[in-house]
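Phosphate/phosphite/phosphonate ABC transporter substrate-binding protein structure dump, as promised
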Amino acid sequence: MPNKLLNKLLLTSTVLMGATMVQAADCDHRGVLDEKFCDENMDLVADTPKDSSKWRDPSTLVFTYTPVEDPAVYKDAFSDFQKYLSEATGKKVVYYTVHSNAAEVEALRSGRLHIAGFSTGPTGYAVNLGGLVPIAVKGTAESFQGYNLITIARADSAIHEMNDLKGKVVAHTSASSNSGNLAPRALFPALGITPDEDYKVKYSGKHDQSIMGVLSGDYDAAPVASDVYKRMVSAGRVNESDFRIIYTSPRFPTSSFGYAHDLHPDLVAKIKQAFSDFRFPEEMQKTFGGADRFYPVTYKEDWKVIRDIAHASGTAYTKTGLKRLAEADAAKAAKKRAKEAAAAN
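structure tokens r here:
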């Protein structure tokens, strides 16, 4: 190797090492957050950067909502809020459609996403790896909107209780989903049913696909989010009489809404105010099961039960975990494309 190139590589390595050491020395506490972030107030989310030159104040804000069902549905559902957010911040707000939880986390981590709603389970990845600061959940004046893990089977099946799942094919949604995978793995063993041991797990990709798969007979049963199930019933996509609910869990918070940790504090104040003041129009209330506003929450307190479930199920909100999630998402997408191609032929 020529001396000039070697010297260049050594210099680059020294600079990067020095930057890492400065960053480490500049942060007294990081906790479980990625090395990009600091958590000196120990609230479990990334602090605003100390260096004001790192504060971002983009002319256009990018917003999205978790791809739990058809992304197009939620682009329309949040259109009124986008307009309100634009007026409150004085900036253009655009909707960025994502098709997987991993892609949403990566968009936040790379700086392409500024404000977002994340599913309950993937919120941990967004916080630890993407720098999300959760501030709200859909709700009412009294409390945040919650949901339960429910296990459904066809009403005309021989499955009446959890023990009947032994030897069956059960749809889980995705690796990072709280109600669709993590909670079942943490809670079901106490009921005498262990996923992958007592029944065969097949990943459907999404809650609505699990529900439709049970209806069509592709799966014998499925653990899904109760709010998704209720929305599908209310929208007439499925008939409640076609299903039997054999298990209902304790209540969990629904999707979190938050902002990127490095946005300018003045902009953050306007974003927080917009979430606090906005009231859902009638159509939006119907879409979200009667919720009429964003209810304030904190990740440290309100997501504790979710972190406990993740810990119990062996899930770590790390880069390795996110990589596995992305690989699982890619495999599901490929399988879906193959199925669609086969159907077209």
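The radius of gyration is 22 Å.
lmk if u need the other ones
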